[in-house]
Amino acid sequence: MVTTCIIPCAGLGTRLRPLTRVVAKELLPYGARPMIEHLWEEVWEAGCRRIIIVLRQGKEMVRQHLEAAGLRALYVEQLHPNGLADALRTAAALVEGPTLVALPDQHLRHASRQLVQAYRGQQTLFSQVEVPQPQFFPGATSFATDPHQNVLALMGEQGLWRGFGRTIYAPEFFQELPDDSRDGDFFQIITRWMRQGVHQVVSLSGQPVDLGILAGYLHYNRQQG
Fold first, then answer.
1. CA-based, 20 to 30 A from 197: which of 12, 52, 60, 64?
2. Bridge partners of residue 161, in order along the sequence
3. What's the rounded Cα separation, in Å, for the pair 185 and 77?
4. What range defines the domain where residue 11 resides?
5. Mind listing the pLDDT tens digit for each residue in 80-128?
6. How many domains does the chain have?
7. How far apart are CA 108 and CA 208, in angstroms?
8. Cα separation of 100 and 102, whole Å?
9. What is the distance, to the nearest Å, from the Cα of residue 188 to the centroid of all Cα atoms in its chain?
10. Cut 0.85: pTM above it
């Protein structure tokens, strides 16, 4: 069973400025609630009860908000915003068993539950979604797969099927993360990790939302209104 989830929240939110100059990205509203509350509900529905949140100095408001709402998590501090690999390395000591990594600025109803239900012990279980407007999903890679949905390679930004911000990793993955990774290194780290074992991708159903850039944030919030 997948009962642990890591939510990286230590980023600078530069692509959402000027909104993030005052409010942490994860607390910006999507519809009537902050992004982080939507994600919490989603991963809880999927059975994750050990939720690890990666913060950095200056983003204490995320923890304060969750605690005020009665939502209890484990917290670790990323000393510098050096990217996703470094954030996950920071949380590695708290990992227990296969672990879901969920990015707070991408949303899809029941996404985590769909992924967890498809998990069968793969070293990596990626997720992908169909994105009719790929300009609102910057940086989302596509996958080269065989007929059994085994991932053969990461293909960069191609086509209408793109990787989504929900992935399950075997616990050994977190021990492979280097101490000196920087922003932008994650693609190479994943490529090395995929040289052995079973790495598959699941196509999720539903309408995905990416709130990570200002244009997408405004677009999807208008749809909510």
1. 52
2. 130
3. 20
4. 4-224
5. 889 999 999 999 999 999 999 999 999 999 999 999 999 999 999 999 9
6. 1
7. 5
8. 6
9. 17
10. yes
